[in-house]
UniProtKB/TrEMBL annotation:
<feature type="domain" description="Helicase C-terminal">
    <location>
        <begin position="271"/>
        <end position="457"/>
    </location>
</feature>
<dbReference type="GO" id="GO:0016887">
    <property type="term" value="F:ATP hydrolysis activity"/>
</dbReference>
<dbReference type="Pfam" id="PF04408">
    <property type="entry name" value="WHD_HA2"/>
</dbReference>
<dbReference type="InterPro" id="IPR002464">
    <property type="entry name" value="DNA/RNA_helicase_DEAH_CS"/>
</dbReference>
<keyword id="KW-0547">Nucleotide-binding</keyword>
<comment type="similarity">
    <text>Belongs to the DEAD box helicase family. DEAH subfamily.</text>
</comment>
<dbReference type="InterPro" id="IPR048333">
    <property type="entry name" value="HA2_WH"/>
</dbReference>
<dbReference type="Pfam" id="PF21010">
    <property type="entry name" value="HA2_C"/>
</dbReference>
<dbReference type="GO" id="GO:0005524">
    <property type="term" value="F:ATP binding"/>
</dbReference>
<keyword id="KW-0347">Helicase</keyword>
<feature type="domain" description="Helicase ATP-binding">
    <location>
        <begin position="48"/>
        <end position="212"/>
    </location>
</feature>
<dbReference type="InterPro" id="IPR027417">
    <property type="entry name" value="P-loop_NTPase"/>
</dbReference>
<feature type="region of interest" description="Disordered">
    <location>
        <begin position="214"/>
        <end position="240"/>
    </location>
</feature>
<dbReference type="Pfam" id="PF13401">
    <property type="entry name" value="AAA_22"/>
</dbReference>
<dbReference type="GO" id="GO:0003723">
    <property type="term" value="F:RNA binding"/>
</dbReference>
<keyword id="KW-0378">Hydrolase</keyword>
<dbReference type="Pfam" id="PF00271">
    <property type="entry name" value="Helicase_C"/>
</dbReference>
Length: 739
DNA sequence: CTCTCCCT
């Protein structure tokens, strides 16, 4: 981009050299062209030897080196699955586990040997299977509930460990514990250059480092050589399973040119659009453009801005090489639009030699791989979730990305051809960024994590060995929350209720809500209509909470008017929970999913709604298997009742809100004399989200219960979903907590 | 009147 004075090029750098070993070489794109000459193949012997000799192998493998597909096959071919044991490979994401299993099955040519197991779906055959791809989360449940010592496995491969997801980190702790009892369980941790050593440190004793001049040499050796504990090692070279080693494998990344701004930019959305269009206009390189922004809203704005400029006949881009297509990409998008960037170019696009400009949120950083990207434009910011244990609020803050993140984004180009990355900040800014962002475990609500650790039989949660240590405040909040929910007793041991909650796949608060519903159903004094509806209703609420983007957000004044009309027949002034119920009543009483048109009219995301129904029926099946009986929570009994609507809706609404409160009583706010809500826990100010029923149509209430909080645009904290409640319920439902 | 992304 010689004609663009905005950027300068400090150096040409091969991002592949130090790129955090990106995503899998799988995701949406099958790279069959990589075929049989993968860089990992050159390391086959080295890897097999390492696992003969050591208990732990940290594998530094870059994007596209083939580690996820090849290592399980090397191990299988070398007899690691000859006994009744198998090779397990974990992934942070379902789609990765599933596509990898399919691909390895076809490479081996025998699908009875390879399969995946993720929540609600499994193709793995336990009698014939040798290689099992799973999600971290699935394996965690397996180790807490079914196979605590992971006896089914001879080798465990933990992939994408550099992402440090909550589940990965918990799993690392669990595996460390298992290896104390079963040191023969081999562990392969696939990670990035920067933290390879810290993984080894976590699993293996550190070598005593020499002081003084030798230090540098020792460091270097310990970093790349085996981690040998000489005091325990036999002379005969027998394997020492408490030791580990690091192997590094080259990637197939093409070089990526990094270009910086001289000064930080003031309006990054506009600058992103300008930059993308300038690249389109002036670059000789083929290949599409991927732009990183922070929110779906910004993405929409950028697409609109770019399309306006492009369609303007006087615009300079008309003089450019060819046409371009602007596409949005973010999670909240309807499925159809979300698929667009991954589809092969249409014949029109090919004929006119059109270039795609994809405006995306963080989803394209690790979760999905957009094909054919030659240019990346990086605004340098991202939305980061952050849990504040003092207030108990989840927050979502726009902040500068880490260096690792910037490298990862840059690396999204250069996968199929040499790439360029335009950073909308200066090189000096880059140097001042954090090397890595804080791991999720240090930024999140730990309630579920603590429950899982307790379920593993750990009496002192603080003694559980984790790679990244969470803050004392967050741990204390988690323990407080579990205690208040009745899952922990005074000695911080699991109660019967807590043990029951371990089996639930929902977060503890939601589990508590469902248990409250079951309890209400079983009580004699409960009115019969409530008995028939309450568990099904709470299942609907539980499932809705798990699925985001159920409603499509109106954008224009006109759309808001239509939205008001659309919700009028399902609206319940008590708030969002019961309103959601009424939406699903529409489906329940006909037993038919809403049509695409009905969904559009009602501003409902059809895919999300279908997902709620799926999650709900699975939760119902779980409750049924656990609590049995002839319960017909979602069946014909319910259909008759919600279809006829002969029930007392006030009675039903109160019953549901009581159950919600039984789980979410820590999330209660009281109306202050100034008209603002304040959380009972800590007295922090809250506003009702503008998309909440209570904001647009509700009546004011002394107390509300809210599902979650998020940062509002103009400062302050918003909450949603909300329902009105009576203060007196708190004394009945959580007397130990609110006196 | 404005919610990043995963997972059991």
């Amino acid at each position: 981009m010689a004609n663009d004075p905005g950027f300068w090029r400090p150096s040409s750098s091969d991002v592949g050299d130090d790129l955090l070993a990106g995503e899998n070489e799988n995701n949406f794109v099958l790279q069959s062209s990589l075929s049989n000459f993968l860089p990992i193949s050159a390391h086959r012997t080295q890897i097999l030897y390492a696992l003969e000799q050591y208990g732990v192998l940290v594998l530094v493998g870059e994007t596209g080196c083939g580690k996820s597909t090849q290592i399980p096959q090397f191990l299988y071919e070398n007899g690691w699955a000859d006994s009744s044991k198998c090779i397990i490979c974990t992934q942070p994401r379902r789609i990765a586990a599933m596509t990898l299993a399919d691909r390895v099955a076809s490479e081996i040519g025998d699908s009875s040997l390879v399969g995946y197991s993720v929540r609600f779906a499994s193709t793995f055959n336990p009698t014939t299977g040798k290689i099992r791809f799973v999600t971290d989360g699935w394996l965690l449940r397996e180790t807490t509930l079914a196979d605590p010592l992971l006896k089914q496995a001879s080798v465990l491969i933990i992939d994408e460990a550099h992402e440090r997801s909550l589940n990965t980190e918990l799993l690392l702790g669990v595996v460390k514990k298992i290896r104390r009892v079963r040191p023969e369980l081999r562990l392969v941790v696939c990670s990035a250059t920067l933290d390879a050593e810290s993984f080894l440190d976590f699993f293996c004793k550190k070598t005593t480092r020499k002081k003084g001049t030798d230090e540098a040499a020792t460091r270097k050796r310990s970093r790349w050589g085996p981690r040998v504990d000489t005091s325990e090692r036999d002379e005969g070279g027998k394997p020492c399973l408490t030791e580990g080693t690091i192997i590094s494998v080259d990637g197939r990344q093409h070089p990526v040119d990094i270009l910086y701004q001289k000064e930080p930019v003031s309006d990054y959305v506009k600058t992103v659009v300008d930059t993308a269009l300038q690249i389109h206009e002036s670059s000789d390189m083929d290949g599409d453009i991927l732009c990183f922004l922070t929110t779906g809203e910004e993405v929409d704005e950028a697409v609109e801005m770019a399309e306006t400029i492009v369609s303007n006949p006087n615009s300079r881009t008309r003089k450019g090489k060819g046409p371009c297509v602007c596409l949005p990409l973010y999670a909240g998008l309807p499925a159809n639009s979300q698929r667009q960037p991954f589809l092969p170019k249409s014949s029109d696009e090919v004929k006119s030699n059109s270039r795609r400009i994809i405006f995306s949120t963080n989803i394209a950083e690790t979760s999905v791989t957009v094909p054919n990207i030659a240019h990346v434009v990086d605004c340098g910011f991202a939305k980061m979730p952050y849990f504040d244990p003092d207030t108990g609020f989840d927050r979502l803050i726009t902040c500068a990305i880490s260096q690792a993140s910037a490298k990862q984004r840059a690396g999204r180009s250069g996968r199929v051809m040499p790439g360029k990355c335009y950073r909308l900040f200066s090189e000096k800014n880059f140097e001042s960024l954090q090397t890595e962002s804080a791991p999720e475990i240090q930024r999140t609500n730990l309630t579920s994590l603590i429950l899982t650790i307790k379920a593993l039989g750990v009496s002192n949660v603080l003694s559980f060995d984790l790679m990244s240590v969470p803050s004392v405040e967050a741990l204390a909040h988690g323990v407080e929350c579990l205690y208040a929910l009745g899952a922990l007793d005074d000695e911080a041991e699991l109660t019967e209720l807590g043990k029951e909650m371990v089996y639930f796949s929902t977060e503890p608060r939601v589990s508590r809500m469902l248990l409250a519903a079951l309890d209400m159903e079983s009580r004699e004094e409960t009115p019969s209509m409530v008995k028939r509806l309450i568990v099904g209703d709470c299942l609907t609420v539980a499932a809705s909470i798990q699925v985001r983007n159920l409603f499509i957000r109106p954008r224009t004044e006109n759309q808001w008017r239509k939205y008001d009309e659309a919700v009028s027949d399902i609206l319940d002034r008590s708030g969002d929970h019961v309103t959601m119920l009424h939406l699903f009543d529409l489906v329940d009483h006909t037993n038919k999913m809403l049509s695409g048109e009905e969904c559009r009219e009602r501003f409902v995301n059809r895919v999300a709604m279908q997902r709620v129904l799926d999650v709900r029926s699975r939760l119902a099946r779980f409750l049924h298997s656990r609590f049995g009986g002839g319960s017909n929570w979602l069946g014909t009994k319910r259909q008759e009742v919600v279809g006829s609507q002969t029930y007392d809706s006030e009675e039903r609404s109160e019953a549901v809100r009581r159950c919600v409160t039984a789980g979410f009583f820590m999330n209660v706010a009281k109306l202050g004399s100034d008209g603002q809500y304040y959380s009972l826990r800590g007295n922090f100010a809250l506003s009702i989200s503008s998309t909440s029923v209570l904001h647009r149509y509700g009546e004011s209430s002394d107390y509300i219960v809210f599902g979650g909080t998020y940062d509002a645009n103009r400062g302050g904290v918003d909450c949603k979903p909300n329902s009105t409640i009576c203060g007196s319920w708190l004394r009945q439902l959580a007397p130990h907590y609110w006196r």
